[in-house]
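Researcher: Next entry in the queue.
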Amino acid sequence: MGEGGGLLTRGPAGFGATSWYPLFMALWIIGSGAAIRVSNQRYNQAFAGIFFLCAVAYLAAQGLLESFA
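Model: Structure for this entry, 69 residues:
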């Protein structure tokens, strides 16, 4: 990791996986809340698959950006 800072100060403004973190977390929280309330197994499977792909893409982008630093 780099020197101090945090979520809002890492990387160029408006670019990089770090700037997508709030959207990524909102997707996780809202989707998980809906999965708790929805008893439709198809929704739960679709959400799990889509969220897994989003998580892999986010982590891949984060690693790719950090390798250039």
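Model: Residues 8-15 have pLDDT under 50 and may be disordered.
Researcher: Noted, moving on.
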